[in-house]
Design a protein that fits this description.
Number of domains: 2
Radius of gyration: 24 Å
Structural class: alpha+beta
Order of helices and strands: EEHEHHHH
Oligomer: single chain
Strand content: 15-25%
Number of strands: 3
Distance between the termini: 57 Å
Low-confidence stretches: 1-62
Number of helices: 5
Amino acid sequence: MRTWMKVVAATAVMIGSTAVASVVAHADPVPAAGPVATGAPSAGSVRAPSKPEQVTGADDVAPLAVVNLGLSSTRAMFVQCWLRTYWGYTGGIDGELGPNSWKAFQRNLREHWGYTGGIDGDVGSGTVSALQRLLSAHWGYTGPIDGQAGSGTQAAFQRFADACSGLC
């Protein structure tokens, strides 16, 4: 006996220039002399669409960007507790620093650490540079203010997160 995967449902869409597919299948035992041996699909099988459906634009589907910058989920929760206590964060304390966590952090960075970008939750080089200024002043970061979240930035961010643990 051989096992042949029968496709039960298939979906494919284009998000920008990236194809995303979802396939649901289940296994059916098929005798070796049956359709598997010849490569032909059995009755009742469904083929995946040959051409993906086009979504009208990348803005129609917004990915949730989680950027913990090297923090464990526990440490990220500590940062979220700090953001909730002091910077208006209203999202969940889930250990995932997503756009809403970073928007709250950007409010702090704008007020105190020279961040001039938008409050958009995007962890770009401007956000990281301002974070490095914070970490340099109080959390032992000694590297350049270069907007790159390297190992020194991540280590100092972990020290910052540990100091926030009492707020949860």
